[in-house]
């Protein structure tokens, strides 16, 4: 585990700490994946796909790091609690949330507090918040 800044951490996903996605593959590409799995290069299709994604991320790593620095994006896991949002609201300094990874908003945050404390939300990855908070922020989520 590497602590990047504040309460942001970069972690390898564990079951439950990942987002499920669906992809469409052509039959020939899928056949190649299955062949590599059958021949023991990968444990299963998911192992192949994760490895391919990580290889591409590594390949473009420097460009991604420059983009993260340029756009002031927090990298990893970032949790926004009620106290932090109340402090932003009370100081009249709404937050611009920019996260590459997973951003979570605490379950005790009300839609009114979220609207008062959050100016904008841009998450490359996943945003976890109550449906009511997501609805309250819908016009601020990019």
Give an overview in words.
With 142 residues, the chain is an alpha/beta fold. It folds into two domains: 24-59, no CATH class; 66-140, no CATH class. It contains six helices and five strands, in the order ββαααβαβαβα. The strands form two sheets. The protein has a three-stranded parallel sheet with strand order 3-4-5, with helices on one face. A two-stranded antiparallel ribbon has the order 1-2.
- Distance from first to last alpha carbon: 29 Å
Report the strand count.
5
Task: State the secondary-structure class.
Answer: alpha/beta
Spatial strand order of the main sheet: 3-4-5
Strand composition percent: 25-35%
The number of helical runs is: 6
Mean pLDDT: 88
Q: What profile does the largest beta sheet have?
A: 3 strands, parallel
Q: Please provide the ordered H/E string of secondary-structure elements.
A: EEHHHEHEHEH
Envelope shape: elongated
Number of domains: 2
Question: Which percent bin holds the helix content?
Answer: 40-55%
C-alpha-based Rg, rounded: 19 Å
**Which regions contain 5 or more consecutive residues with pLDDT less than 50?**
1-11
Protein name: Transcriptional regulator, CopG/Arc/MetJ family
Pfam families: RHH_8
GO biological process, one term: regulation of DNA-templated transcription
């Amino acid at each position: 585990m590497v602590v990047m800044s504040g309460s942001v951490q970069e972690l390898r996903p564990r079951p439950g700490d990942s987002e499920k996605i669906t992809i469409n593959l052509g039959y020939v590409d899928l056949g190649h994946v299955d062949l590599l799995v059958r021949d023991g290069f990968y444990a299963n299709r998911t192992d192949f796909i994760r490895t391919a994604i990580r290889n591409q991320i590594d390949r473009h790593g420097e460009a991604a790091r420059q983009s993260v620095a340029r756009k002031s994006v927090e990298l990893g896991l970032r949790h926004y609690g009620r106290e932090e949002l109340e402090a932003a609201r009370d100081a009249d300094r709404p937050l611009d949330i920019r996260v590459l990874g997973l951003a979570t908003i605490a379950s005790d945050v009300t839609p009114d507090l979220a609207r008062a404390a959050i100016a904008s939300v841009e998450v490359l990855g996943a945003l976890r918040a109550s449906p009511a908070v997501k609805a309250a922020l819908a016009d601020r989520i990019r």
